[in-house]
Amino acid sequence: MRHCVTSQALAAGFLVALGSFACCAEIVYVGAFGSGLALYVVDETSSTTRLITAGPVDTSPAWSPDGARIAFVRWVGDAPDIFVVNADGTGLSRLTDNPGQDCEPTWSPDGSSIAFLSVRDGAPAVYLMNADGTDQRPFVGLPGDIASLDWSPDGASIVFERIVDYRHSLFVLDVLTGEIRGVGDMVASKPCWSPDGEWIAFAGDAHIGIVRPDGTGSRWLTTQSGRNTHPAWSPDGTRIAYQSDDLGRDMICIIGLSTGTFVRVADVGTSPDWSPEP
What we know:
By secondary structure, this protein is mostly beta strands. It has a domain at 52-140: Beta Barrel (Lipocalin). 4% of the residues lie in helices and 49% in strands. The chain has one helix at residues 7-18; strands at residues 26-33, 36-43, 49-51, 58-63, 69-76, 79-86, 93-94, 102-107, 113-120, 123-130, 137-138, 146-151, 157-164, 167-174, 180-183, 189-193, 200-203, 208-211, 219-220, 228-233, 239-244, 251-256, 262-266, 270-274. Strand 14 (167-174) and strand 15 (180-183) form a beta hairpin. The chain is globular, with a radius of gyration of 18 Å. The chain starts with 6 loop residues before the first helix and ends with a strand. The relative contact order is 0.16. Residues 1-23 have low confidence and may be disordered.
């Protein structure tokens, strides 16, 4: 049975559907804009949206820890580069200008750095740069063939996704010691650390799950049909936004961890990321 409600019903029933929580916030996501893609922000209680960028093809938004800026990927010609824009859509700035591919920007917890995936000299690798795009250098300690990554809230660990033996798996890097260990034995991608550092959300074959950083306590959250992916935690850790094609098109949904109830906040969209707590 489906429990998803329409965006029109969201404003009236959201608090009841998901239970009590500490705060509300905005979610940035990728949506259609003309013949391309752009970034939008949706308010989770009212489902009202606003346009942030105008493409031509903008993807992979990542909100800065202070909520002031959004890093994202813009396709320039045949290659993607990293850009940043203020949360109100002003102050667009290009951070990378590489003939290869730069993608998947991820902010450090203090907002001073951005990690990203890059193909330079023909080899994929994880790079690190200052938040203004300066001092671009390889991220020492991380393997090159990573598909996505996320910092722990305290900055001490990084969870990342790799394909090992044709299987998407999660690993955690201890930043101080350089130790890398596996996280569970499930098929998992798109990891995202909870605000308290106690859980990692991930996308499995078709559903959103959570697991502790030591690999214990894994459980599935979503029950929708189709493919559910790209989880992003709410600032208070009570809800997860994600991308679902349950209705035959990609849309943005939110699920409550304690209730298992989900709502749809954007009828068409991909790659959500939640703004930090106001």
